[in-house]
Design a protein that fits this description.
The structure is a homodimer.
Chain A (H helix, E strand, L loop, with lengths): L1 H29 L6 H20 L1 H12 L4 H19 L2 H23 L3 H22 L5 H9 L5 H23 L16 H15 L6 E5 L5 E5 L2 E6 L6 H19 L16 H15 L3 H14 L9 H8 L16 H17 L7 H13 L25 H21 L1 H9 L4 H10 L9 H9 L6 H15 L4
């Protein structure tokens, strides 16, 4: 099957070049000297341009068509399916639109940074207007059946539709809103101060590295470094790097961040190396990726069995800080629920309400039902309805996230999909591996059986199946809000004294 | 002049891509996780292949020919001269030869590492035979007037010839041999133990960074990291990185290494950014590059005025270690001269004898007058004549350097050229800026005037002039061994009590 092989060779070559850009991106956010940024931008732009040329080469289209006709086997068919999706999307976008989006979003990110710092929406507004218009053009160029938002969503969550996510999120909101209300009116509050004592950075680093190592992050095939906005960067086989930032007065920021990024990295580190650069060697979707980070961060990392192992170690690592703190106090503190303005600091119960707000507003922006000028007012009004509090300014409201400034409309829903997938996968893992035995594993600081299950069920498959199908294959069911809601009720019910 | 502009655009683009490889190379030697090496090799090979394609594209040849005919101005002519040299060299090499050299030297470096570790020349011998044969083919493909060695030399030191270097080195050896003999038989020896006491690594790091900063390394446009074999990597405008390794029981290793790499970096950091990616934005030659590292390491960094400023700071930084050590003791210890086996550990007086040995053997290998099988015996015999001692094994003899294993025949002479250029430049700087005032600067920890002189005379010019011409323009004379020999006599005469 020479057309297929030649296609794959070309696709892999573009991926290797793109992975050079990943090293440069990692370096830019960790070690690059300050004055290197202008040259770095030129390097990144050149690599992006060359990768785009390589993957949209008409020869690729010819080979793809030939390969599709040549009776591919199941694995090949999966590769061809996703290469087709990427290729069609890429060639449908006129190059002037691609360049315009790149140019505008590069500048818009700078404007957004300043606008957020000064809580000055008026400054960002014309840029957001441009971006929404450009993304609408993008959606039209890509094409869609029902909703222009589908065309954007598809970039991050292949095959997902606005309609099904809307219905899923509606179900979720219906259960979530009364649960959150019950928690907030329970009158119970943990002693949050525990987590804001002195946590010396070197001890945090030691403790975070130990936990990452124990859950299965491979330090022979990765690194942990410090950055401003933590991320995980999968460079290629044997090299996936995570980052964190340390706040000496807040335990959660680095520790749960490290678990989160480790979850992403464990996925990347266990993709099949032989398929690197092809869909079979690539994560299924952003939603599935996020399920892996949230699973380790929350489902595992905020569970009692996990802390039955780690709390004594934490007490040894931070002896003065945690003197006299009980496991119960600690568990309650790390599982606090409260209405708050900032998405990235939100707890498990309220987090998805932040996403639902953004998901709704993005759709309305795209159809034109919501004008950019009305974003702050609409944000604050809906936020008030969802959380019962109103952002004191736009920096803590509609300006808080970077996503719109880089043109990432359609990205937010994958965060909630990740939470739902994580709960549904974990429910299944507890069936397949016995929940009580998993708890016993965690209590003993052992995570290998769960990791192996995730490797086999998810990581090793790459994009063999789309997210939706993958979920059905693993759990026997389509994705539902129920496992997540059940999980929240089981956890927060006892903590806040809410009757089942 | 559209042909010229298009040519420059293409040449710069290849340089930007190549500079991505520089980031990857730096990362590989500093932070890359162990398991990332196989993927890194693929990334590096792809970038090398693409850069080669871009710079040997027939379109480049056409544009070059057009631009040459179109009355270039002086700056353009300099760019065209060096692009012509690189292009002709690249297109003359058959691609199977290029690939074969890449393949063989990649493996040979691994073999060499093991062979050196076990002092097992027999293991390395077949690889060296292959490499010599390949480099002979390379020399023939490139072409040469008198000596095949010219063709190899030209890659590192554009325009230099074997004949002129041979004559220069012969003059040097004639003066150096009696000087070294007089020093070694002087009966005077410093207390070397001073430098082998406990030098805590964090204090070494602090002290090295302070010195690098004071002499003019710009930490906003560069970094200092730890590696196994220290190097300097110029990535692009605003980004040049140096590395070091710390030996807690030896002061010299890191400190003089940092000065050395800072010298290279100060050159890179002060190349004209607007000419990045063209010859006018590139260092003149390896010899001139080495002159900058040796100038700061030795001419400045081992001088008494330098240490009149730094020794009190060293005494503060290493209070117990240097307690009771006088500046005189310290100066003598860092300027010790002795016959030794290892080139990279050699002092200023004996260093060039190591280079002369290699230079002679490389020429003989290339002509076939020396068989690879005879290398160990010939090395030891000539070494005995030069130094009066015989290497106890090949690891400390002919296997000590990595250069042959990567195919770098023709590279060694640039080290001695660097020493000679450094002395001749410094002699001129002392005339232009007043030597006594420069000494006063150094005593006050000020190096800006010297750095500015180097910026203007050398760094800002890139490859505007070839090394030889540059030297004549700066010093009014062709390169000579005399300033270097005078410098050595002036320094070592008093230390070892040798009459002038």
């Amino acid at each position: 099957m020479p057309a297929y092989d030649d296609l794959i060779r070309r696709w892999k070559e573009a991926a290797i070049l793109s992975s050079c850009g990943s090293v440069l991106g990692w370096d830019e956010r960790t070690y690059m000297p300050r004055n290197g940024s202008a040259h770095r931008a030129e390097q990144m732009a050149l690599i992006a341009k060359m990768c785009h040329q390589m993957t949209t080469d008409p020869k690729v289209g010819q080979l793809l068509a030939q390969a599709e006709k040549a009776k591919p086997d199941e694995m090949q068919a999966a590769n061809l399916r996703e290469i087709r999706r990427s290729y069609d999307r890429a060639v449908k976008l006129p190059s002037d639109l691609v360049e315009e989006i790149a140019r505008v979003t590069t500048q818009a990110q700078q404007v957004w940074t300043d606008a957020r710092a000064n809580s000055d929406f008026a400054k960002f507004r014309p840029w957001l207007e441009k971006i929404v218009a450009l993304k609408r053009r993008e959606a039209e160029a890509v094409g869609f059946k029902k909703h222009p938002y589908d065309a954007l969503l598809d970039e991050f969550e292949p095959g997902a539709t606005t309609e099904e996510i809307r219905s899923l999120f509606a179900d979720l909101a219906k259960d979530l809103t009364p649960l959150v209300a019950a928690i907030l009116s329970s009158g119970k509050k943990p002693n949050r101060e525990i987590l804001h004592r002195e946590f010396p950075v070197p001890s945090q680093e030691f403790f975070g590295r130990m936990a990452a190592d124990k859950i299965g992050f491979d330090f022979q095939a990765g690194r942990l470094d410090v950055t401003t906005h933590p991320f995980c960067s999968g460079i290629g086989p044997g090299d996936c790097r995570i980052t964190t930032r340390y706040n000496p007065k807040h335990f959660n920021e680095s520790f749960f961040g490290v678990l989160h990024e480790s979850g992403h990295a464990i996925y990347e580190q266990n993709l099949p190396a032989e398929h690197f650069g092809t869909p079979l060697g690539t994560a299924a979707s952003l939603g599935i990726h996020e399920s892996q980070s949230r699973l380790w961060e929350n489902q595992v990392g905020r569970s009692r069995p996990f802390w039955e192992h780690f709390f004594p170690l934490a007490a040894n690592t931070f002896p003065q800080t945690l003197a006299g703190v009980s496991l119960d106090d600690f568990m309650f503190a790390i599982n606090d629920v409260q209405a708050s303005f900032i998405r990235v600091e939100a707890d498990e119960a309220t987090y998805n309400l932040h996403i639902i707000l953004r998901f709704e507003m993005e759709q309305a922006l795209l159809t034109g039902d919501l004008k950019v000028a009305d974003v702050p007012a609409v944000w604050n009004e809906r936020f008030g309805k969802l959380f019962g509090i109103t952002p004191p300014n736009d920096a803590q409201g509609c300006l808080q996230d970077i996503h719109w400034s880089f043109g990432g409309l359609g990205y937010f829903p994958t965060y909630t999909l990740g939470n739902l997938y994580a709960a549904q996968f974990m429910e299944q893992a507890r069936k397949d591996l016995s929940g009580s035995q998993l708890d016993a594993d965690f209590r003993a600081g052992k995570f290998e059986r769960l990791k192996k299950w995730l490797n086999e069920k998810i990581h090793h498959l790459g994009q063999h199946y789309r997210a939706k199908v993958l979920c059905e294959r693993i759990t026997g069911k389509t994705l539902s809000h129920r496992p997540f809601v059940e999980y929240l009720k089981a956890k927060f019910g006892p903590l806040f004294g809410i009757p089942a």
